[in-house]
Amino acid sequence: MKKVNLLFWVIVSLTLSSCSRYGYVHLNYPQAPAAYLPEGVDDLAVVNRSLTPKENQQTKVIESIMTGEVAGSDRLASDEAIKGVYDGIHAADGVHILIPKNLRLDGTGTRETPAPLGWEHVVAICDSTGADALLVLETFDSNSDLLLQTAAGQIGSILTTGKPGIRVPRRARVDVRCYWRLYDPRTKTIADQFQQSHYLSFNLLSPIPPFQALSETAYAAGHEYIRRFLPSYYSVRRELYKKGKGRDKHQFNTGWRRSEVANWEGAIDAWMPLASNPTSQLAGQAALNIAVAHEVLGDTDRALEWAQRAYEDYGDKLARDYAKTLLRRKNIER
């Protein structure tokens, strides 16, 4: 499976406690994607198959009235979901989204999931665009809870006062439900199938939701779906040494002070002679600090090398667990 290489900005903060021998740096740590694109997929075609066939238009208009949709709005908003996909991953780590000339295909026009496309059709679309795989928005449906809120308010008013109320809800929630399929024409397999429900809430200045409410919700749904194939991040804390002892403590402490002002290259320069000197009492601690500095700078390979060195050559206990953590990180980044 294709794994996305990680480019990330590090958020750094260091503790200022003067009594501890340890300092801490906080940085963003990658979390594996929820799903992976098939191996070798660099160009991905996307089509919209959620549209209502002409013979079902009358049924759709009736449904629109009953659910609070604007007639025909799903036809327009479903394309916004495609745009959300495009903006969410296009050119991320070399992945390019391709939009075929015939973007729209007829589907059920409801939440009923259609049968998968035939492989001849999938191959034809991929060949026409030069794509490696095909992503299809199979279904798209929207609803607003405005009518439900209004009806509940009217019923409550009648039960309380005996009269219909005139109060209009201050907020409305717009929901979209999508069903996505990712077709891999080379292996003739469906690499991903995902039923999605996404909503946004909007302030009401009038009795109807803002004009852009549905399109914004649809765009956000498409963006959210495609981000499943990219890693997310959470904050982690890395421990390093901030106080040295012995004849080399001044140079060691210089490296720490440089790290406090985010001068990590300068900190490495200060710690490198100590880590390379097996007679230094601070060699293992300096090597551990250099490992952390390299991770902060985004070089996991160098960080792992120095963490292993800190434990294997000098027996630093912090470095043992840290090296295992970096190995897990490398597995995500591959």
TrEMBL record:
InterPro entries: DUF6340, TPR-like_helical_dom_sf. It comes from the Bacteria. This is Tetratricopeptide repeat protein. It comes from Sunxiuqinia dokdonensis.
